[in-house]
Every structure is written in C-alpha cells, then in structure tokens.
Design a protein that fits this description.
Number of helices: 7
Largest sheet: none
Structural class: mainly alpha
Number of strands: 0
Length: 109
C-alpha cells in the first residue's frame, strides 16, 4: 500500500472501487473486525454481482446484449461483467439498481 493510494482513497479520488486494494488497506490497518460496508455499491460488489446479474438476466429471459441495451451500456458490457473481465462502475451499479428495483416493484403489484 503506497501513500499515494491511501491519499487517493482519503480524497475520494477513486472512481472504481478496487476491492483488492481495499482489502489490502483493511489488512494493513488491522481493522478487519471493525469494517461494516455501509456503501450499497461496495456491498453489491463484495456479494458476487456476477451471479446477481446472470440470475436477473435468466429470470427475465434476456440476452447479455438485451440487458446491455436496457442499462444503456455498450453492447459487450454485460458479457465482460459476467466473465469477470471488467469491473462494474458505480454509475453502472446505479443503473442496475434502478432497473432491478423497478422490476421488483412491478412484480409486487
């Protein structure tokens, strides 16, 4: 862990959450037992988002391409997420959350 990385975290300059870096910082500071992820985005990323996205897509009979269009992302974005080749940005998480929540609420009616 470099001083530069810590400064970026403190100044909230990280656009994507690098979970490996976050875990290293937690280990470095020795605060594993004191961490509670209050941030919805980090909780989502830490709890197997690939499975959540695949499950949603399959339950709604959507292709990766169709889900990409619903989320207004690039054509191959969902494929990259599901393969683990690409991280889900915070802004993409917000789109996912909005789509999944609106569908959940529609199912409840």
């Amino acid at each position: 862990m470099t001083k530069y990385a810590i400064r970026n975290i403190e100044n909230n300059e990280m656009r994507l959450v690098n979970l490996s870096l976050l875990d290293k910082l937690i280990d470095y500071l020795g605060i594993q037992d004191k961490i509670m992820y209050e941030d919805e985005y980090i909780r989502f990323i830490k709890n197997n988002p690939i499975a959540v996205i695949k499950d949603y897509r399959k339950r709604n009979n959507l292709t990766q391409y169709q889900l990409s269009k619903l989320l207004n992302t690039g054509d191959g974005t969902v494929k990259q997420w599901e393969s683990g080749r690409c991280n889900i940005s915070r802004s993409s998480y917000e789109k996912i959350k909005q789509l999944f929540t609106s569908d959940f609420l529609a199912d409840e009616k």
